[in-house]
Design brief:
It is globular, with a radius of gyration of 18 Å. It has two domains: about 1-160 and about 200-225, NAD(P)-binding Rossmann-like Domain (Rossmann fold); about 165-195 and about 225-265 and about 285-290, UDP-galactose 4-epimerase, domain 1, CATH 3.90.25. The chain has about 290 residues and is α/β, with parallel strands linked by helices. Helix 6 packs across helix 8 (about 230-240). Helices cover about 40% and strands about 20% of the residues. The strands form three sheets. A seven-stranded parallel beta sheet has the order 3-2-1-4-5-6-10, sandwiched between helices.
Protein backbone atom coordinates (compact mmCIF):
# COMPACT_ATOMS: atom_id res chain seq x y z
CA UNK A 1 0.00 0.00 0.00
CA UNK A 2 0.91 3.63 -0.45
CA UNK A 3 0.22 5.13 2.98
CA UNK A 4 -0.18 8.73 4.13
CA UNK A 5 1.36 9.18 7.59
CA UNK A 6 0.95 12.30 9.73
CA UNK A 7 3.45 12.81 12.54
CA UNK A 8 6.00 10.68 10.70
CA UNK A 9 9.10 12.18 12.33
CA UNK A 10 7.99 11.84 15.95
CA UNK A 11 8.98 9.13 18.41
CA UNK A 12 6.13 6.88 17.29
CA UNK A 13 5.87 8.13 13.72
CA UNK A 14 9.48 7.47 12.82
CA UNK A 15 9.06 3.90 14.06
CA UNK A 16 5.85 3.53 12.03
CA UNK A 17 7.49 4.83 8.85
CA UNK A 18 10.34 2.33 9.24
CA UNK A 19 7.88 -0.49 10.00
CA UNK A 20 5.79 0.26 6.91
CA UNK A 21 8.79 0.55 4.61
CA UNK A 22 10.27 -2.63 6.04
CA UNK A 23 7.09 -4.53 5.18
CA UNK A 24 6.71 -3.55 1.56
CA UNK A 25 4.60 -0.40 1.81
CA UNK A 26 5.50 3.05 0.48
CA UNK A 27 5.01 6.18 2.57
CA UNK A 28 3.85 9.71 1.84
CA UNK A 29 4.44 11.63 5.06
CA UNK A 30 3.34 15.09 6.16
CA UNK A 31 6.36 17.38 6.68
CA UNK A 32 5.85 20.74 8.37
CA UNK A 33 9.49 21.87 8.03
CA UNK A 34 12.49 21.43 5.77
CA UNK A 35 14.23 19.48 8.54
CA UNK A 36 11.29 17.07 8.75
CA UNK A 37 11.28 16.65 4.97
CA UNK A 38 15.01 15.81 4.98
CA UNK A 39 14.53 13.29 7.80
CA UNK A 40 11.67 11.61 5.94
CA UNK A 41 13.63 11.42 2.71
CA UNK A 42 16.59 9.91 4.57
CA UNK A 43 14.24 7.28 5.99
CA UNK A 44 12.95 6.39 2.52
CA UNK A 45 9.59 8.21 2.63
CA UNK A 46 8.22 10.89 0.30
CA UNK A 47 7.57 14.16 2.16
CA UNK A 48 4.30 16.05 1.72
CA UNK A 49 4.97 19.70 2.65
CA UNK A 50 2.45 20.97 5.19
CA UNK A 51 1.23 20.79 8.75
CA UNK A 52 -1.83 19.47 10.53
CA UNK A 53 -3.60 22.81 10.09
CA UNK A 54 -3.16 22.70 6.30
CA UNK A 55 -6.48 21.04 5.57
CA UNK A 56 -6.25 21.34 1.78
CA UNK A 57 -2.90 19.54 1.87
CA UNK A 58 -4.38 16.76 3.99
CA UNK A 59 -7.31 16.36 1.61
CA UNK A 60 -4.99 16.19 -1.40
CA UNK A 61 -2.65 13.73 0.32
CA UNK A 62 -5.49 11.41 1.31
CA UNK A 63 -6.60 11.33 -2.32
CA UNK A 64 -3.20 10.03 -3.43
CA UNK A 65 -2.88 6.98 -1.20
CA UNK A 66 -4.35 3.58 -0.38
CA UNK A 67 -4.63 4.24 3.36
CA UNK A 68 -3.93 6.73 6.15
CA UNK A 69 -2.26 6.49 9.55
CA UNK A 70 -2.77 9.60 11.66
CA UNK A 71 -0.33 10.25 14.51
CA UNK A 72 0.34 14.00 14.54
CA UNK A 73 -0.59 16.07 17.59
CA UNK A 74 0.78 19.35 18.93
CA UNK A 75 1.95 18.31 22.40
CA UNK A 76 1.66 21.64 24.20
CA UNK A 77 0.25 20.80 27.62
CA UNK A 78 1.37 24.03 29.31
CA UNK A 79 -2.11 25.54 29.70
CA UNK A 80 -5.72 24.49 29.36
CA UNK A 81 -6.01 26.83 26.37
CA UNK A 82 -3.04 25.27 24.56
CA UNK A 83 -4.44 21.78 25.12
CA UNK A 84 -7.84 22.85 23.77
CA UNK A 85 -6.21 24.40 20.70
CA UNK A 86 -4.25 21.22 19.96
CA UNK A 87 -7.36 19.07 20.36
CA UNK A 88 -9.36 21.35 18.04
CA UNK A 89 -6.62 21.34 15.41
CA UNK A 90 -6.47 17.55 15.41
CA UNK A 91 -10.25 17.21 15.29
CA UNK A 92 -10.47 19.39 12.18
CA UNK A 93 -7.70 17.38 10.51
CA UNK A 94 -9.39 14.05 11.29
CA UNK A 95 -12.68 15.31 9.87
CA UNK A 96 -11.03 16.32 6.57
CA UNK A 97 -9.09 13.06 6.25
CA UNK A 98 -12.24 11.07 6.95
CA UNK A 99 -14.28 13.00 4.39
CA UNK A 100 -11.63 12.30 1.76
CA UNK A 101 -11.91 8.55 2.38
CA UNK A 102 -15.70 8.15 2.49
CA UNK A 103 -16.94 5.46 0.15
CA UNK A 104 -13.48 4.17 -0.73
CA UNK A 105 -13.19 1.18 1.65
CA UNK A 106 -9.63 2.35 2.33
CA UNK A 107 -8.12 1.96 5.82
CA UNK A 108 -7.94 4.96 8.16
CA UNK A 109 -6.00 4.29 11.35
CA UNK A 110 -5.96 6.91 14.08
CA UNK A 111 -4.82 6.88 17.70
CA UNK A 112 -6.33 7.71 21.06
CA UNK A 113 -5.52 6.94 24.69
CA UNK A 114 -6.36 3.83 26.65
CA UNK A 115 -9.50 4.46 28.74
CA UNK A 116 -9.94 4.33 32.49
CA UNK A 117 -12.23 1.75 34.11
CA UNK A 118 -13.04 2.33 37.76
CA UNK A 119 -11.70 -0.46 39.96
CA UNK A 120 -10.44 -2.68 37.15
CA UNK A 121 -8.16 -2.99 34.16
CA UNK A 122 -9.64 -1.41 31.03
CA UNK A 123 -10.14 -3.43 27.85
CA UNK A 124 -10.74 -2.81 24.16
CA UNK A 125 -14.50 -3.07 24.82
CA UNK A 126 -14.52 0.02 27.06
CA UNK A 127 -15.72 3.30 25.51
CA UNK A 128 -13.24 6.07 24.68
CA UNK A 129 -12.55 8.94 27.06
CA UNK A 130 -14.77 11.84 25.92
CA UNK A 131 -14.62 14.10 29.00
CA UNK A 132 -11.82 16.04 30.66
CA UNK A 133 -9.01 18.15 29.15
CA UNK A 134 -8.40 15.79 26.22
CA UNK A 135 -11.95 14.47 25.90
CA UNK A 136 -12.24 16.17 22.53
CA UNK A 137 -9.70 13.72 21.15
CA UNK A 138 -11.93 10.83 22.16
CA UNK A 139 -14.95 12.44 20.53
CA UNK A 140 -13.01 13.02 17.30
CA UNK A 141 -11.82 9.41 17.25
CA UNK A 142 -15.36 8.19 17.89
CA UNK A 143 -16.43 10.16 14.80
CA UNK A 144 -13.66 8.47 12.79
CA UNK A 145 -14.87 5.05 13.91
CA UNK A 146 -18.37 6.06 12.89
CA UNK A 147 -17.13 6.35 9.31
CA UNK A 148 -17.24 2.54 9.19
CA UNK A 149 -20.87 2.93 8.09
CA UNK A 150 -19.79 5.23 5.24
CA UNK A 151 -17.33 2.99 3.47
CA UNK A 152 -14.18 3.70 5.45
CA UNK A 153 -12.20 0.91 7.13
CA UNK A 154 -11.60 3.11 10.15
CA UNK A 155 -9.84 1.80 13.26
CA UNK A 156 -8.32 3.27 16.40
CA UNK A 157 -5.16 2.12 18.13
CA UNK A 158 -5.31 3.20 21.76
CA UNK A 159 -1.89 4.17 23.04
CA UNK A 160 -0.99 3.94 26.74
CA UNK A 161 0.18 6.82 28.89
CA UNK A 162 3.81 6.15 27.95
CA UNK A 163 5.10 5.13 24.53
CA UNK A 164 8.85 4.99 24.97
CA UNK A 165 12.14 4.32 23.23
CA UNK A 166 15.57 4.52 24.90
CA UNK A 167 14.05 6.10 27.98
CA UNK A 168 12.30 8.89 26.08
CA UNK A 169 8.64 9.60 25.39
CA UNK A 170 5.16 9.73 26.83
CA UNK A 171 4.11 10.68 30.33
CA UNK A 172 7.27 9.13 31.77
CA UNK A 173 9.18 11.51 29.51
CA UNK A 174 7.23 14.43 30.95
CA UNK A 175 8.10 13.25 34.48
CA UNK A 176 11.75 13.12 33.42
CA UNK A 177 11.68 16.62 31.89
CA UNK A 178 10.07 18.08 35.02
CA UNK A 179 12.63 16.29 37.22
CA UNK A 180 15.53 17.76 35.22
CA UNK A 181 13.99 21.23 35.41
CA UNK A 182 13.05 21.22 39.12
CA UNK A 183 15.73 19.00 40.63
CA UNK A 184 13.11 16.65 42.12
CA UNK A 185 11.83 13.38 40.67
CA UNK A 186 8.21 13.77 41.67
CA UNK A 187 5.00 11.79 41.48
CA UNK A 188 1.44 12.93 42.25
CA UNK A 189 -0.36 11.59 45.30
CA UNK A 190 1.00 8.42 46.88
CA UNK A 191 2.31 7.15 43.54
CA UNK A 192 0.38 3.88 43.63
CA UNK A 193 -1.63 4.78 40.53
CA UNK A 194 -0.73 2.52 37.61
CA UNK A 195 0.14 3.55 34.07
CA UNK A 196 0.30 1.19 31.09
CA UNK A 197 3.18 1.48 28.63
CA UNK A 198 4.55 0.18 25.33
CA UNK A 199 7.80 0.44 23.40
CA UNK A 200 7.47 2.59 20.27
CA UNK A 201 8.76 -0.22 18.06
CA UNK A 202 6.05 -2.56 19.34
CA UNK A 203 3.38 0.12 18.89
CA UNK A 204 4.53 0.57 15.29
CA UNK A 205 3.93 -3.11 14.56
CA UNK A 206 0.36 -2.87 15.87
CA UNK A 207 -0.35 0.23 13.81
CA UNK A 208 0.81 -1.63 10.70
CA UNK A 209 -1.36 -4.63 11.56
CA UNK A 210 -4.37 -2.38 12.06
CA UNK A 211 -3.75 -0.81 8.66
CA UNK A 212 -3.41 -4.16 6.95
CA UNK A 213 -6.13 -6.26 8.49
CA UNK A 214 -8.26 -4.67 11.22
CA UNK A 215 -12.03 -4.59 10.63
CA UNK A 216 -13.89 -1.32 10.25
CA UNK A 217 -15.05 0.39 13.42
CA UNK A 218 -12.69 -1.47 15.79
CA UNK A 219 -10.42 -0.34 18.62
CA UNK A 220 -7.15 -1.95 19.73
CA UNK A 221 -4.83 -1.59 22.69
CA UNK A 222 -1.11 -1.06 22.16
CA UNK A 223 -0.30 -2.13 25.71
CA UNK A 224 2.77 -4.16 26.62
CA UNK A 225 3.03 -3.29 30.34
CA UNK A 226 -0.42 -3.48 31.93
CA UNK A 227 0.37 -0.97 34.65
CA UNK A 228 3.50 0.12 36.54
CA UNK A 229 3.00 2.15 39.71
CA UNK A 230 4.08 5.72 39.07
CA UNK A 231 6.31 5.77 42.15
CA UNK A 232 8.24 2.83 40.67
CA UNK A 233 8.65 4.72 37.39
CA UNK A 234 9.84 7.82 39.23
CA UNK A 235 12.20 5.79 41.41
CA UNK A 236 14.11 4.74 38.29
CA UNK A 237 14.10 8.31 36.96
CA UNK A 238 15.40 9.67 40.26
CA UNK A 239 18.12 7.04 40.52
CA UNK A 240 19.29 7.53 36.94
CA UNK A 241 19.34 11.33 37.28
CA UNK A 242 20.74 11.36 40.82
CA UNK A 243 17.74 13.31 42.15
CA UNK A 244 15.57 12.96 45.27
CA UNK A 245 12.24 11.19 44.82
CA UNK A 246 9.09 12.41 46.54
CA UNK A 247 5.41 13.18 46.15
CA UNK A 248 4.59 16.57 44.63
CA UNK A 249 1.26 18.43 44.17
CA UNK A 250 -0.87 17.45 41.18
CA UNK A 251 -0.73 21.10 40.11
CA UNK A 252 2.90 20.44 39.15
CA UNK A 253 1.56 18.86 35.98
CA UNK A 254 -0.70 21.75 34.98
CA UNK A 255 -3.90 20.86 33.10
CA UNK A 256 -2.88 17.18 33.08
CA UNK A 257 -2.72 16.94 36.87
CA UNK A 258 -5.94 14.97 37.16
CA UNK A 259 -4.85 12.51 34.48
CA UNK A 260 -1.44 12.07 36.08
CA UNK A 261 -3.12 11.22 39.37
CA UNK A 262 -5.49 8.63 37.91
CA UNK A 263 -5.12 4.86 38.20
CA UNK A 264 -5.43 3.58 34.64
CA UNK A 265 -4.13 0.04 34.05
CA UNK A 266 -5.07 -1.48 30.71
CA UNK A 267 -5.12 -4.86 28.99
CA UNK A 268 -4.31 -5.86 25.41
CA UNK A 269 -5.44 -9.49 25.65
CA UNK A 270 -8.04 -9.15 22.88
CA UNK A 271 -5.63 -7.29 20.60
CA UNK A 272 -2.97 -9.96 20.98
CA UNK A 273 -5.41 -12.80 20.34
CA UNK A 274 -7.23 -11.21 17.40
CA UNK A 275 -4.33 -9.61 15.53
CA UNK A 276 -1.46 -11.83 16.65
CA UNK A 277 0.42 -8.87 18.08
CA UNK A 278 3.22 -9.83 20.46
CA UNK A 279 5.31 -7.06 22.07
CA UNK A 280 8.99 -8.03 22.29
CA UNK A 281 10.94 -4.88 23.13
CA UNK A 282 12.04 -3.70 26.61
CA UNK A 283 9.51 -2.77 29.26
CA UNK A 284 9.25 0.83 30.45
CA UNK A 285 11.16 0.22 33.68
CA UNK A 286 13.96 -1.52 31.79
CA UNK A 287 14.02 1.13 29.07
CA UNK A 288 14.30 3.96 31.61
CA UNK A 289 17.68 2.51 32.56
CA UNK A 290 18.89 4.22 29.35
CA UNK A 291 18.39 7.68 30.91
CA UNK A 292 21.60 9.66 31.20
CA UNK A 293 22.22 12.01 34.15
Amino acid sequence: MRVLVTGGTGLIGSAVVAELLGNGHTVLALARSDASARALQAAGAEPLPGGLADLAVLRTGAGQVDGVIHLAFHHDFSTAESVAASVAEEGAALAVLGEALVGSDRPFVTVSGTPAAAGRVSTEADPPVIEGPVGGRGRAVAAVLGLASQGVRSTAVRLPRTVHNEGRGGFAGILTDIARRTGVAGYPGDGTQRWPAVHALDAAVLLRLALECASAGTSWHAVADEGDQVRDIVAVIGRRLGLPVRSVPAQTYGPLGGIFSADQPSSSAHTRAALGWQPKHPSLLDDLENLQP
